[in-house]
Amino acid sequence: MWRSSTGRATLSCDGSGTRGRGQDHPRGPLPHRDLAYFCSKYGPLVYLRLGGVDAITTDDPDIIREILLKQDDIFASRPKTVAAIHLAYGCGDVALAPFGSHWKRMRRICMEHLLSTKRLELFVNHRVNEANHLVRDVWKRIHVSKLVNLREVLGAFSMNNVTRMLLGKQYFGAGSAGPEEAMEFMNITHELFWLLGLIYLGDYLPIWRWIDPFGCEKKMRDVEKRVDEFHRKIIEEHRKVRNDQNGDEKGEMDFVDILLSLPGEDGKEHMDDVEIKALIQDMIAAATDTSAVTNEWAMAEVIKHPRVLRRIQEELDEVVGLHRMVTESDLPHLTYLRCVVRETFRMHPAGPFLIPHESTKPTIINGYHIPEGTRVFINTYALGRNRRVWDNVEEFRPERHLVSVTGSGTRERVEISHGADFKILPFSAGKRKCPGAPLGVAFVLTALARLFHCFDWAPSGEGIDTEEVYGMTMPKAKPLVAVATPRLATNMYYSV
Ligand code: HEM
Q1: Are 94 and 240 in contact (CB under 8 A)?
Q2: Which residues have CB under 8 Å from 424's CB, separation 6+?
Q3: Which cofactors are named for this entry (predicted)?
Q4: From the CA of 155, how far away is ligand 1's center (Å)?
């Protein structure tokens, strides 16, 4: 284990400018690469002293398994960062809440009322509508210009899917909430995400908060107010509809309707508004960016590798054919596409440091003493490029994930999770693992299957670059723009 005396200046992302996901943004610092370098140079477990805070980082499957599974009870908490306090209602949500009874209750509410198999099945028709809308969106765009901005298309797909389930409305497309509200909504979500991903020096050197030279906390307070206003309106609209219905006719209930109907803590008749707001915000933030960023990376890598595109399309033509659209029931049979998604997660994990964990007791890892309150940066970016684990780490080669053919001649389903070997970690593991993984996988596979089945893709004149920027998620630096050509009969596009 290597000990740094002060951490490194590159770990601070303060002042790197706000992230506008519609446009290019400066690359800024890449702390996941700095910490990957530390592990390759000093060993699989590195200790850092960041101002007043103890921290460790690792890129090693066995150490990750030790932290997330064997010592899960000790490492299942979260640091209370300044951003989390401002932007997650004082850590009153699920994702940023410290381990304890509040976190348990909030997580259970999400699992039971949004993410249970039954609820996911109830929303299948919305997902089909959004998949159809995605195809129509690209079809319409290529009649204006062959160049398609995939960041816009995929961002709208994820946002619509999530807001339909949560808020009961689509934000982009016909019958949507309207372009102004949609843009405001997108912008706030992206600013929120950018601020949450920021490694803010004030978390490590309290004196920094007095100076705040880049106005980070001011930005946090500003976004906090705008987001809160947005959530206030959503709750008000839902209450009004409930009152107007007067209990007579109950339409389909979205997540906000359900939250409004649940009892609160300690015998209260209803949940507090602040709890409802924290949950809405968490779900939107956790579900939209992660799946949109993953889809954009997968499209970029596949368009860059025409051999992979051909193989995906051969599989789709065999499993689905050319005379109907892909459905969710096809997804388990798209073995090669599933390998493409695994390979995308290996090279471009949506959460390069997961969401940082924090220890609640002193413990021993790999023979080293780890004090209570140590911040844990599990570097999934470095894990996917760890040369002790993977060969040819810079090569995008989905075949490496193909599992062997079983005795009966059928291939086993390729799982898009960490598996027993912990060689990739897209959704984490243990108590804090992503509760939305099945839904996230459905969003990703559906969008990719539809786009590769319905269209041929080629790079634009500028080619495809694969540079990333750091954030809570790790998006491509430049939005992906590519040339699309229909590959199904014309009537297929009119029937969706
Ligand atoms: C491709 C899509 C997705 C990816 C790659 C992803 C990945 C992750 C990762 C890496 C974490 C951090 C786990 C940790 O810190 O150990 C996480 C947490 C979380 N995710 Fe996801 N996620 C995705 C989709 C979703 C969806 C669709 C939802 C819900 C609608 C969701 C809800 C959450 C929540 C609530 C947490 C916090 C869990 C906790 O702290 O207890 N995610 N996700």
Answers
A1: no
A2: 342, 345, 346, 349, 380, 383, 384, 418
A3: heme
A4: 17
